[in-house]
Write a sequence for this structure.
């Protein structure tokens, strides 16, 4: 890990802090905090599983690993859906029009391809570099998408965070 990459890692932490506008967010609660920490832990465990798989003798079996991962996820979501109860389940609308199924199929292929690439790279790149780039890159790209597609207005602090995130990603890639 180079000095530039350490600087990029530090800058990525600054990005995380600056990107959230806590003062204007009325949705913050203990429930939200628990969900955010659970998500943080789950994404960390995904990285651990990827590292274990890619450092095992079965590292070349990317598609099989991901197939079972997606099956596990589908079963868990189905169980959560059933556990939500009849009242909440009735509110869900699962009507899929034929034109929507094309978009869903394309989305599935893209998500599958991204996961194959990420799983492969998690075994080839230094994890100190790879995971901040991937996870920080999602935050930076989400911010850019919010600006371009949803015309969201950023605070000065968030704009600095976005620029810091772009700089951090560049430094991590050096």
């Amino acid at each position: 890990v180079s000095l530039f990459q350490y600087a990029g890692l530090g800058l990525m932490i600054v990005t995380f802090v600056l990107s959230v506008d806590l003062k204007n967010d009325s949705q913050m609660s203990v429930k939200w905090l628990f969900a955010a920490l659970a998500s943080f832990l789950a994404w960390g465990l995904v990285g651990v599983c990827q590292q274990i798989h890619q450092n095992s003798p079965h590292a070349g079996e990317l598609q099989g690993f991901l197939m079972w991962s997606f099956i596990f996820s589908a079963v868990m979501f189905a169980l959560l859906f059933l556990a939500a109860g009849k009242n909440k389940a009735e509110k869900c609308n699962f009507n899929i029009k034929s034109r929507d199924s094309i978009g869903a199929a394309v989305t599935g292929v893209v998500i599958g391809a991204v996961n194959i690439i990420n799983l492969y790279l998690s075994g080839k790149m230094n994890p100190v570099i790879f995971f901040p780039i991937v996870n920080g890159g999602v935050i930076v790209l989400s911010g850019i998408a919010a600006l371009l597609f949803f015309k969201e207005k950023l605070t000065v602090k968030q704009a600095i965070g976005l620029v810091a995130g772009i700089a951090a990603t560049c430094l991590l890639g050096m």
User: Anything to note?
Assistant: The mean pLDDT is 80. The two ends are 10 Å apart (CA to CA).
